[in-house]
Amino acid sequence: MRPHPLLALLALAACVEQEPEPSGAALFREHCASCHGPDGRGGGAAAAALDRAPPDLTQISRRNGGTFPRNRVMSIIDGYTRGTHSGRLMPEFGEMDLGPTVIIEDVPGVGTPVPVRLLALADYLESIQH
Question: Does residue 17 sit within a domain?
Fold first, then answer.
């Protein structure tokens, strides 16, 4: 008896290795902690060499009236928009591989493709707000 073609396809799909979900905390440790500190409050090892101290990332929501500005944070991280606060001090992480995109829907019915690693990092930053 031959296996059903759909079952064979499902078995093949199960064998395909899935890319693990990125950890926002791990991405932060790898790319951000040297300047922003291991807890996001500033004072990382590389911060002393900078002209201006990196901001305390645990206070983003407080500085924004109690709301975490996810889209603005992602835009600053990837380098799409930069205010005068970061200028050229912060690397543009959008130039590196931020992984495949996922669709997020901030406005009902409007989906925006966002790199999965960028979203994970923004989620992590939101989780450390005080």
Answer: no
d(CA 21, CA 120): 9
At a CB cut-off of 8 Å and minimum separation 6, what does 119 contact?
74, 102, 104
Give the ranges where the chain is alpha helix by DSSP (H). 5-15, 24-31, 33-36, 60-63, 70-78, 116-127
Domain contains 88: yes
Estimate to the nearest angstrom the gap between the alpha carbon of 72 and the chain centroid.
12
What pTM, to 2 d.p., does this model score?
0.77
What is the extent of the structural domain holding 78?
A: 22-127
- What CATH code is carried by the domain that includes residue 65? 1.10.760
Residue 70 within any structural domain of the chain: yes
Q: What is the C-alpha separation between 52 and 27, in angstroms, rounded?
A: 23
pLDDT of residue 10: 47
Q: What is the number of domains present in the chain?
A: 1
Query: If you average pLDDT over every residue of the chain, what do you get?
Result: 82
